[in-house]
Specification:
InterPro entries: DUF1989 (IPR018959). This is DUF1989 domain-containing protein. It comes from Prosthecomicrobium pneumaticum. This protein has about 240 residues and is of the alpha+beta class. Strands 2, 4, 5, 8, 9, 10 and 12 form a seven-stranded antiparallel β-sheet that branches. The model has no long low-confidence stretch (mean pLDDT about 95). The structure holds zinc ion. Zinc ion (ZN) binds next to loops.
Length: about 240
């Protein structure tokens, strides 16, 4: 049976070469921000056009729920569904993160991913774009009790910079390893990521990013912190 897609958005060869160079030239960068985000907490911060955001599993495997906004108009934000349609259900190097209508433009391009991608059941893969963020309501539905969650982490992180709770949106779940089984049900596995693994995202516009160290039990036996680093390439200055 043949299949029809939606037109995978591959980078042009010259874009691929440029991003490969930016990822390789780690000695030609200035550090703009370097921040440890504690386990079960969130953090919001600006990432300007041309800067590179690195998110590192500094303590071991840890899923990072990622939200992003246009710095000049937060009603334009990361669009999980459109990105899934254009790039796929799991993202890696060369994939771009797209914003909402009416602009629908690339917000970030993934330029580095050190996670080893192995053969997993039902083609499960790392860096999930399928699962919704965990929330107090979802935990009450499943476990009938209140638990720490990404929705609250992202809400608190954004409140600290003056964004309302309604700005929290479906996340890109970096380092989360997920799949769809033969009954079309979602499942997650322990992350393929190991301590020291990181992903780098190149900002295509001025943004505000919010991250959550997911407390939802998808990171292995214990929840951990994440290191967030923003670099400015020296060539761009
Ligand atoms: Zn979560």
């Amino acid at each position: 049976m043949s299949t029809t897609g939606y037109g995978y958005q591959a980078l042009a060869p010259e874009q691929r070469d440029r991003f490969a160079r930016l990822a390789a030239e780690t000695d030609r960068r200035r550090t703009v921000l370097d921040r440890y985000v504690e386990r079960e907490r969130g953090f919001a911060f600006p990432v300007r056009s041309g800067e590179i955001l690195r998110i590192t599993c500094c303590d071991g495997p840890q899923v990072c729920d990622f939200n992003a906004f246009a710095a000049d108009d937060p009603s334009e934000h990361f669009w999980s569904g459109r990105t899934r349609t254009l790039q796929g259900a799991h993202l890696s190097v060369g994939d771009r993160l797209w914003s909402t209508e009416p602009k629908m433009r690339p917000m970030f391009t993934i330029i580095a991913d050190t996670v080893p991608h192995g053969a997993l059941p039902f083609n499960a893969a790392s860096h999930d774009l399928v699962y919704a963020r965990c929330s107090a309501s979802a935990w009450r539905l499943r476990f009938d009790r209140d638990m720490p969650n990404c929705n609250d982490n992202l809400t608190a992180a954004l409140a600290a910079i003056g964004f309302p709770a309604s700005h929290v949106h479906d996340a890109f779940n970096i380092f989360m390893t997920t799949g769809v089984d033969d009954r079309q049900r979602l499942f997650h596995l322990e992350p393929e990521a190991r301590q020291g693994d990181y992903m780098e995202l190149h900002a295509e516009m001025d943004t505000v990013v919010a991250v959550s160290c997911c407390p939802g039990g998808c990171s292995g036996p214990e929840n951990k912190g994440l290191q967030v680093t923003v670099f400015a390439p020296l060539d761009a200055e």
